[in-house]
Amino acid sequence: MSKSLQAIRGMNDILPEQTPLWRYFEGTVARLLDNYGYKQIRMPIVEFTELFKRSIGEVTDIVEKEMYTFEDRNGDSLTLRPEGTAACVRAVLEHGLTGAGQPQKLWYIGPMFRHERPQKGRYRQFHQIGLEVFNIDGPDIDAELIVLTWRLWGLLGIRDAVKLELNSLGTSESRGRYKVALVEYLSAHLDKLDEDSQRRLKTNPLRVLDTKNADTQAVLVNAPKMADYLDDESRIHFEGLKARLEAAGIPFEINTKLVRGLDYYSKTVFEWVTDKLGAQGTVCAGGRYDGLVEQMGGKPTTGVGFAMGIERLILLLETLEKVPEEISRQVDVYLCAFGEAAELAALALSEKVRDQLPNLRLQVNAGAGSFKNQFKKADKSGALYALILGDDELAQQVIGFKPLRGQGEQQNIAFDALAAHLATCVVQG
After folding, report:
1. Rounded average pLDDT over 235-239
2. Rounded distance, CA 81 to CA 85, Å?
3. Beta strand pairing status for 362-364 and 333-337?
4. In b/e form, how buried is each residue of 69-96, taking b as 16+ CB within 10 angstroms?
5. Across the beta sheet with 77-80, what order do the strands follow?
6. What is the C-alpha separation between 303 and 241, in angstroms, rounded?
7. How many other CB atoms are found less than 10 A from the CB of residue 131?
8. How many CB atoms lie within 10 A of CB 202?
9. Which pLDDT does position 317 carry in this prediction?
10. Cα(38)–Cα(90) distance, rounded to whole angstroms?
11. What is the C-alpha end-to-end distance of the chain, expressed in Å?
């Protein structure tokens, strides 16, 4: 007997009962970004593998362990994108979007892919919304990215459940000096480091700072701090960012161990974290990457951005019971028609109503059925009201109007008055 077909582990279907919440979340973000002047860009899901090796770093966990990489029929090595920044930078360079120092404020949405151990809030195919800003180098744009996320948390009703953590990684030169001091300190305590941290000490020592191993964390208590190695430019930038967040009334904490998992970050790094989702606490993270465009073959161009995990934020909304009640309703009005003549009239009448009320969610019964059967479908649809059209109503050019979710008696509404009546009951109510 053949094995039943099913989705790949860690790559999940988003079912019809789930998509209203996704559309609500995505729509809320899109409207907010429109208001802040960000323009959407859409990049391919598959890129040349070299793009991610050059941008993310060959000795990062993502490139070493997590990418979905394969050869196509031409023998080219291709990779399902594990994150969005590298692809966005590639698109910006390829199409000359930042030529002559032109500022760009961009955003994107879509699936990313990493071969990780699937768990709640962490999947092999996951979805992100990302923002990238080019050719604006001051702390004011760093602050804007954080301010707009703070506004988003307010719109979603989750501000009390998230916390902002900040750090500065300095320039590549100051970070290099810090790495030397950190490696020297950790090498003196090598026997107390976990196996993974010992490996990272040789390949990517800053990643030791965000270890979850308790013994290694104890060693890090007395380790050198990045703040002591910051150059003046980075220190002034960081102070400017903190001043702007304080002026906007946004609380934050300095986390000296916050380094992010990608090699391209410099100066500002930040994370929005929550303690409501167990181990997967980061819901939005990013920072500055002023050297990345040049590293990928472009002219020196400043950059800053972030990405937010849609699955985790959806899960947070559900956990906190912040899902708006109205988004679960897909239908406002359900039209029941009985008999061939009534069905023909229902089709014409429903389209006329849609012309007058384009935002009305009106579902016309399909597949005929008895009075009892159609009303059962009307109720199951979640509609607020049912419209009833049979031979008697058709003869009088009226339609029955029956509330399904509250008080009120059934009444008859003239065909030419139906749209105005629905506007009062549904569209405005």
Report:
1. 96
2. 10
3. parallel
4. eeeeeeeeebbbbbbbbbbbbbbbbeee
5. 46-48, 77-80, 68-71
6. 15
7. 26
8. 10
9. 97
10. 18
11. 55
Q: State both tokens at 248.
A: 């906007």
Contacts (Cβ under 8 Å, ≥6 apart) of 174: 229, 230, 231, 234
Give the span between the Cα atoms of 194 and 213, in whole angstroms: 7
Measured distance CA(164)–CA(168) in Å, rounded: 14
SS3 276: coil
Task: Please tell me the number of Cα atoms within 13 Å of 258 on its side-chain side.
Answer: 22
Query: What is the model's pLDDT at position 261?
Result: 57
The answer to whether the CB of 321 falls within 8 A of the CB of 370 is: no
Residues 6+ positions from 256 with CB-CB distance below 8 Å: 167, 209, 225, 226, 227
* Better pLDDT: 59 or 198: 198
d(CA 414, CA 416): 6
Residue type, 203: T
DSSP codes, 58-79:
TTSHIIIII-EEEE-TTS-EEE
pLDDT digits (tens, 9 = 90+) for 403-420: 998 778 899 999 999 999
CA–CA separation, 283 vs 219, rounded Å?
A: 28
Measuring CA to CA, which residue among 242, 218, 235 is closest to residue 166?
A: 242
User: Contact 350/335 with Cβ under 8 angstroms?
Assistant: yes
CB 300 within 8 A of CB 7: no
User: What is the DSSP code (8-state) at residue 5?
Assistant: P
What is the per-residue pLDDT for 67?
Answer: 93
Which residue blocks in 248-404 are alpha helix, DSSP H? 292-295, 310-319, 340-356, 371-380, 391-396
Structure tokens at 37: 């002047």
pLDDT at position 203 over 90? no
Percent of the chain with pLDDT over 70: 97
User: Strand, helix or coil at 239?
Assistant: helix
Residue type, 249: G
d(CA 113, CA 128): 10
Contact between residue 2 and residue 110 where contact means Cβ atoms under 8 Å apart? no
SS3 state of residue 380: helix
Dump pLDDT digits (tens) for 147-168.
999 999 999 999 999 999 999 9
- Is residue 207 within 8 Å of 193, Cβ to Cβ? no
The one-letter amino acid code at 347 reads L
Distance CA 232, CA 246 (A): 21
403, 337 contact by CB (below 8 A): no
DSSP state for residue 98 in the 8-state scheme = T
Whole-model pTM: value is: 0.88
